[in-house]
């Protein structure tokens, strides 16, 4: 009964691995150890991807927070000064070569 459970689980793992892992040894019969090793490899890759994604999300959150906390008032006042002094190209007359 114990062996039957083990064999059933290994067959389930084999079906979950998908064709990309099973292509590694197309002409030979996969042993149980091969299926277990491929499963460990797949789960390790999945965990690394998840850790990388978590790290990237933390960096993005920190970057967004710093951007929200940034003081843009000096830039805003500079733009306002340019507009009021007619140095801004928006308020200047268009140059027409004809």
UniProtKB/TrEMBL annotation:
Cross-referenced SUPFAM superfamilies: HLH, helix-loop-helix DNA-binding domain (SSF47459)
Location(s), subcellular: Nucleus
GO cellular component: nucleus
Keywords recorded for this protein, A-Z: Nucleus, Repressor, Transcription, Transcription regulation
All residue ranges annotated as the BHLH domain in the record: 1-46
GO molecular function: protein dimerization activity
Protein name: BHLH domain-containing protein
Organism: Haplochromis burtoni (Burton's mouthbrooder)
């Amino acid at each position: 009964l114990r062996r039957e459970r083990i064999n059933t689980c290994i067959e389930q793992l084999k079906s979950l691995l998908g064709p990309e892992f099973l292509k590694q040894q197309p002409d030979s019969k996969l042993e149980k150890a091969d299926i277990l090793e491929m499963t460990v490899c797949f789960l390790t890759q999945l965990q690394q991807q998840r850790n990388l994604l978590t790290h990237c999300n933390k960096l993005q959150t920190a970057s967004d927070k710093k951007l929200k906390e940034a003081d843009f008032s000096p830039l805003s006042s500079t733009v306002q000064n340019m507009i009021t002094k007619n140095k801004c190209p928006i308020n200047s007359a268009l140059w027409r070569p004809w």
